[in-house]
C-alpha cells in the first residue's frame, strides 16, 4: 500500500531522527554523529533555526515515520531590485527510502512555499560529488548557474 508523503515543520521531538539521517550520509562529510555527547550541539542549532523569522526546518513523513528533511531560508538582497529568494539547504532523504519520490515531494513543497511567499527564485548548493543529486535537481528544473566557494572557519 502506497503512503502519502507529508511535509511539516520540524519539532524538537524530531531531532534524533534527523540527526540519524545526517549521520548516515557518507558523502556529506559534515561530521554528523548520533553520539550522545553531540546532542546539545544539535539542540542549539535547532533552537537558532526555530527562533529565526527567516529559517524553517521541515520533515517529510510517511506513516508517521520521518523519511526526509530540508531547511529553507528567505534571503533578501539589493541586487535584482531588492529581490528575495528561497535558499534550500540540507536536503536529505533517508538512505533506505531513496528513489521513492520523497525528495521530489520535498522540493515541490519548497517550490510552492516560495511561490506562496512571492519569492523570485529558489537557490541551493550541492556537494560536487553528488552527481545523482545534480541529475535530480536538473530534472526538477534547476539549472547550474554559479560556482560556490566555502571557507571553513573551524
CATH superfamily: Gcn5-related N-acetyltransferase (GNAT)
Order of helices and strands: EHHEEHEHEH
Per the CATH scheme, the topology name is Aminopeptidase
CATH architecture: 3-Layer(aba) Sandwich
Low-confidence stretches: none
Order of the strands making up the biggest sheet: 1-2-3-4-5
Shape: globular
Number of helices: 5
Describe this structure in words.
With 154 residues, this protein is an alpha+beta fold. It has a single domain (6-139), classed as Aminopeptidase (3-Layer(aba) Sandwich), CATH 3.40.630. It contains five helices and five strands. It has helices spanning 15-23, 39-51, 79-82, 102-116, 131-139, and strands at residues 6-9, 55-62, 65-76, 84-93, 121-124. It has a five-stranded mixed beta sheet with strand order 1-2-3-4-5, with helices on both faces. The N and C termini lie far apart (47 Å).
Tag the structure with descriptive keywords.
154 residues; alpha+beta; Aminopeptidase; 5 strands; 32% helix
Amino acid at each position: 500500500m502506497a503512503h502519502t508523503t507529508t511535509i511539516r515543520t520540524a519539532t524538537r521531538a524530531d531531532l534524533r531522527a534527523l540527526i540519524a539521517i545526517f549521520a548516515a550520509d557518507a558523502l556529506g562529510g559534515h561530521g554528523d554523529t548520533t553520539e550522545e555527547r553531540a546532542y546539545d550541539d544539535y539542540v542549539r542549532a535547532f533552537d537558532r533555526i526555530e527562533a529565526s523569522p527567516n529559517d524553517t526546518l521541515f520533515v517529510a513523513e510517511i506513516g508517521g515515520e520521518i523519511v526526509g528533511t530540508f531547511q529553507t531560508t528567505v534571503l533578501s538582497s539589493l541586487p535584482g531590485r531588492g529581490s528575495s529568494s528561497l535558499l534550500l539547504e540540507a536536503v536529505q532523504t533517508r538512505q533506505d527510502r531513496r528513489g521513492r519520490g520523497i525528495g521530489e515531494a520535498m522540493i515541490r513543497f519548497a517550490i510552492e512555499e516560495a511561490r506562496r511567499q512571492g519569492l523570485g527564485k529558489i537557490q541551493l548548493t550541492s556537494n560536487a560529488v553528488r552527481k545523482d543529486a545534480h541529475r535530480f535537481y536538473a530534472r526538477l528544473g534547476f539549472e547550474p548557474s554559479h560556482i560556490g566557494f566555502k571557507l571553513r572557519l573551524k
